[in-house]
Structure formats: structure tokens, C-alpha cells
Amino acid sequence: MTDPHDSFSRRAMLTAALVGGGAAAAALAGAPAAQAAGKQSEGGQPGGKKQFTLTVLGTTDLHNNVFNWDYFKNTAYADTAGNKIGIAQAATLIHAMRAERGAANTLTIDAGDTIQGTPLAYYFAKISPISATVKHPMALAMNTIGYDAVGLGNHEFNYGIPLLRTWEKQLNFPLLGANVHDAVTGGRAFTPYVLKRVKTDNGWLTVGLVGFVTPGCALWDRDNVQGKLDFNGIVEEAKTVIPQVKAAGADIVIVTSHSGATPGSSYGDALPFPENASTQLAEEVPGIDAILVGHAHLEIPERFVTNKATGKQVLLTEPLKWGMRVSVMDLELAREKGQWTVTSAHSLLLDAKTVDADPAVVRAVQAGHEATVRYVNEVIGTSTAPLSTATACWEDSAAIDAINYVQASTIKAELANGPAAGLPVLSIAAAFSRAVDVKAGPLTIRDVAGLYIFDNTLLSIKVTGAQVKDYLEWSAQYFKPVTGTTARSADVTNAVTAVAPNGTPDYNYDVVYGLDAPLNYEIDLARPAGDRIANLSYGGQALRPEQEFALAINNYRQSGGGNFPAVKTAPVLSNSQQEIRQRIIDYVVDHGTLDVAVFSQANWRLTVNGAPLTVTA
């Protein structure tokens, strides 16, 4: 890292770190000292208003990425864009910006999804759970950096409320969630906001930091929160809490909003509140000056939304995910007659690949990282064939079959001695990543963790043949219309729909698998969405609408994620609340092998007017 006492070197490093460079980089490189270092001055405004620049630094969707490390590949993280990940990388940018702007003039916040997402997170939730004596790596890292506040994300609830509360106690700063309420008392369950006092040469500035989380938590973690926590709509809650923050003395208000900037909901009308409401929040609730956006994993350097009531421009920014970027929000303020107002606001993103990891953060979490590496590299069995998801989104894959087979076999055993024992078992699974590449031979825990990266749990529900057909039709919306029999994958997958305006993600394309007999089908992309499933059969016979099945399904999907039809209201047959990843690990340990000859089926394919479709990467 450059010499922290060398102002020119610091500025050169930050200029290099700017995403996109160009005018923003030039502006920072040549910024006057009063602006770049957050100094105060008089003049430059009519009437001699007194000036101050507040800098707010933001991260989001860290997903427990501490180091630039890929636990699934057991090597440094790498992608085609050359990104680096981890809060240790972001910390270096944060410290450099504090040195550049002045630490006393800088606040640091995060917009949620912090404690879930990597084997490191799983290790400290399930293998060596955090406690009064075992500290969470993200608490250690964030405390070392010195955050001022962090907002709740929906994934904070994945490991249950007790673990979340333990993590909250380990933080040296507030965990914000204004729209989360106690289901019994109705009171707010988390700190709604915090006031930060910033000393300037022209008196004190009071900054209100407010946090909101997408209300989809009520669906996605229903088993963890039902009857315990309620989630109000973000805009609905903000109309109450923002005036409270102002009344408490906030001169300006900065929001962490774990809710995307592009309107829409992956759960359709399952809740009365939208999933992604940050733009609506800026438009409809007066009194907000800037919003740090999270949840969508998008890169928004700077965006302005006009408040409908005041005409004021509200600044929005989102720093991608995993610590790849740091948002820098500069708010220019003027004080006149004892009142502070924001005269202008701008933001930009800094790129974590331009710096090295912060040594203090590395020291704080090194032991936990090393323990996790040892854990995930334990050999638990063998695989008889390679398991890859590189083409799983457009052709049958043994990797997805492996997940479905273990899920279906587990459910078959769970139902064996009950009233649903006679039901044939189906299973659904999706490719969460196209990067899974498990070699034939020894299988480690990290291989299985890479095959199933989420902490979803396994349930079974009762469905009919007609509902299976509807489910497949909904899933097939993932594909774009095709007219020829050869196409590139980019021209086939990730279709834009009403509930996926940015394109349907891979994890919302489900394959349906039959355990007791094959469920075979074709997806004809020459036909319109909703009428694409052809030659649907079970056990060699046309699927009958009245046939009944037990369907193995994950808790995210069953609770409404992706808004698939019928599953939210279907009778639940079993719910062990055990992670699917652990179920796969247990299967390998018990059987010693994943034998592709046992579970692989070629049960579905893409067609165009009945002819096979050839898809190239």
C-alpha cells in the first residue's frame, strides 16, 4: 500500500481505484484540498454560507467474504473481469479515503447480507458456532475497520434469530432494521436509526443513519421468523421513521436500503410490499438525502431520483457485491442561520482490485479463515465422474441430477413410515452457478459446498400432475424464444419477464427429476412462454393431471422465491429443516461415493418445433 502520510500518493492510489476512471478520476486527482480532504470554508455561496463536505463510505452484500479467497476452488478468487473480493480489500480503500477526506469528516456504513454466503459463514454458524467466546469473522473485521452502522439484509436471518442476535451483540456499532417488528408486541425489533454527530468548524452536524430490509424475509426465512418477526414495507415504514429521525435532531438523513433500485419482486403478489423499493423510497418519502442500495448485486456509481413531494434530488449508489467496490458519497452542505442543507451530492465507486488487503483485518480473521480451509478440504468420499454445471442451464447435467437424487432419496426415506409413503417422489433443483467443476475422484466438503452453495433446507410437498406441468411451464419462462435449431447460450437463457426485468437468473430455472421413474419432457422454444412443455411423461406414460407426487423442494422455493405456482399452498409432507448441502455431505459419507450410474438421467431437452436445439456456449 502507498505511504499513508503521502497525500499525493494517496490521491494517485484512489484515482487508480476509481471504477471507470474518466472525468470522475480526473476530478478527484485535481480536486481542491478543501473538497478532497473534506475541509470547511466560507464563501462560494450567496450570502456567505458556511460550507462543509461530508463523505459517506458504503459497502453491501459482503456475504461473509473476508479475504480474496474462493473456498470452493481452494485458491485466490478470480473472475474474467479481474475482480478481487473481501472486506479486507475494501478496508484498504476505506482507510485511504478517510486519510484523503479526513477521518472526522467520514462515516462508514453497510447495506446488509453480511453473515451468510461462504463456507466461512457456515463454519461459524454450524461447525464452530459463535458464542460469548467465539467471535464472528465479520464482527472482528467490521469492528477492526470501525463501521458506524450496518443495515440488515435478508440473508441475516438464514441461520436463525439466536445466531443473528449473538452477532449483533459482538458488533461495536448498531445493526439497523427500522421495518422489522416484534410479532408479539408490534414494537421495533432492531435499532431503527442512529444519530452521528460530526464536528465541523461551523458547529456540529447531526447525521441520521436509517436501515431498511426487503420484506421478502417473511417468505424466504419463514421457518425462522414466522410468529417472531414481522416485516413492514420499506416505504410504509419510512413514512413513519424518517420524520422521527428528523424530529430527533438529524440535519441530514442517509439510508441503508437492502432493496434493489429497479422495481419488482421475485415473489410476485405473495406479499403486499415490493421486494425492490429503493427508487420508490426516494420518490415517495421526503427528508432522505442519500441511499446506499443493496440486495440486487448491481453496480450503480451514481443515480439521482426526484422526490415527488419536494422536487429534491436524492442520491442512490450501489457498490456491486462481496467487497468488490466501495461507494464514496460526497455531500456538500451549507449552514445558514443554524440550519444545514445539502447543496449538492455526488458519488463514485472505488475498485478493490487496485489495492492489497488491509493487514489489520487479515490479522483479525486469519485464524477463522485457516480453520475453515482445513474443514472444507476434508475428503469424505469419491465421485465416479466429473460433475460440471457449465452447460446445466440448457442441457441435462449429472451435477444437477446428483442434487436431485440426494434430495429425492432423502425425502423417500423421511416419508417411508408415514401416510405419504406410497407417493412417487419428484425433486427440483437449479444450477446456482455455471462454474461448478468437480473432478472425478476424491470428494471434499468444498466440492459439495461448491455444488450447492446456498444454505437452503429441504422440505417435501404434495403436488398433482397438473401442478407439475404448471411448475415446468413457469420454469421454462427462463428461456428466450428461438426459431433456428442452433443458437448461442446468451440468445437462449435469462429471458426478461414481468417479474425479472433484468433477466431471469439461472437459479430460477428449475429442472424436475423423478426418483421412482423418469419424468421426461421437452421444452419447445418455438412456442410461447406458458405453452412450451411437450411430451411430458412419467414412467413412460403421459403424465395424468390427477396423479399425486411428493416433491422434494428447498425452503426458498417453497416459501415463494421465484413465485413458482402452487408450491406455497401445497400440503407440506415433511420439513426436517436440514441444509441440503449437509444432506449431500451425509449421503457421500454414508455411501462413500457419488456414482453417476446410479443417479444420472437424460430426462429433458430443449427443442424448436420438435427438433433438438443445439446450444453453443
From TrEMBL:
It comes from the Bacteria. Residues 55-297 form the Calcineurin-like phosphoesterase domain. The keyword Transcription does not apply. Keywords: Hydrolase, Nucleotide-binding, Signal. Residues 1-36 form the signal peptide. InterPro entries: 5'-Nucleotdase_C (IPR008334), 5'-Nucleotdase_C_sf (IPR036907), 5'-Nucleotdase_CS (IPR006146), 5_nucleotidase/apyrase (IPR006179), Calcineurin-like_PHP (IPR004843), Metallo-depent_PP-like (IPR029052), TAT_signal (IPR006311). It holds the Pfam family Metallophos. Residues 379-568 form the 5'-Nucleotidase C-terminal domain. PROSITE patterns: 5_NUCLEOTIDASE_2, TAT. The keyword tRNA processing does not apply. Belongs to the 5'-nucleotidase family. This is 5'-nucleotidase C-terminal domain-containing protein. The lineage of its organism: Bacteria, Bacillati, Actinomycetota, Actinomycetes, Micrococcales.
